[in-house]
Design brief:
Length: about 210
């Protein structure tokens, strides 16, 4: 029997591209409901947060701020979110299932990170760019979590954008903003979820001449 033909080795560039593709395309949003209660190793958490700090930042303002809730801290967050929802919601719009979820969801993930944007004092950089920089930092966290095999999910219930939320987090400048909650934990299932995206061709325009 002759040996099967050898697969030609990938060159270094193709290997690097394959690694980038795998990380970017493997990243999935995995909700707290699909996490288990295994604790997050503080070294993993530190690696995730440190990579957030390497996001691009116009003017080097580094506007991302993170408030990390663990243990009973998550209960304080959950209680606050529930009471805020109650306060901000008119009786007609109030939904018991949303109210209940605001309490239960933060307790399903071992770590919940409140994401915030700290506005630059002199406002030289447009606000939208500061929000964009924070989004990049969250993406860095998400990619790092995925690389570690961890579950992560960015959640933005409307109340996160309120002044009350900002103040509760201790952000005294009214120009600062909470931009959501980032849930972090371990996936309960051994099957990593499949992602899906629509056709790319309609989202890009080439101008060549
Ligand atoms: C800024 C931002 C806010 C999001 N907020 C929510 C949210 O409030 N609820 C939700 O179900 N998903 C939220 N998501 C996650 C998206 O639902 C998720 O990215 C999308 O379903 C694609 O799945 P994938 O991340 O696994 O590729 C948010 C994503 C981004 C970028």
């Amino acid at each position: 029997m002759s040996d099967p033909p050898a697969t030609p080795p990938l060159d270094a560039l193709s290997l690097r591209l394959a690694a980038a593709n795998a990380l970017i395309r493997r990243r999935r949003s995995i909700k707290p409901q699909a996490m288990d209660q295994r604790p997050v190793d503080p070294r993993h958490l530190a690696a995730i947060l440190e990579n957030a700090n390497w996001a691009p930042t116009h003017g080097m303002t580094e506007p991302w701020r993170f408030f990390v809730f663990t243990g009973a801290g998550r209960e304080r967050l959950a209680d606050f979110c529930q009471s805020l929802y109650r306060r901000l919601t008119l009786d007609d719009a109030f939904r018991q299932d949303k109210f209940d979820k605001l309490r239960s969801q933060p307790l399903l993930a071992p770590v919940v990170v409140a994401i915030a944007m700290k506005r630059q004092e002199i406002e030289k950089i447009p606000e939208i760019e500061e929000v964009e920089a924070v989004a990049c930092s969250v993406h860095n966290m998400h990619l790092t979590a995925s690389a570690l095999g961890m579950a992560a999910f960015w959640s933005t219930p409307p109340l996160v954008y309120s002044d009350e939320m900002r103040q509760w987090l201790g952000l005294s400048d009214p120009r600062d903003k909470c931009l959501g909650l980032f849930y972090l934990g371990w996936p309960a299932s051994e099957t990593w979820p499949e992602g899906q995206r629509g056709d790319f061709s309609g989202k890009i325009v080439h101008i060549e001449g």
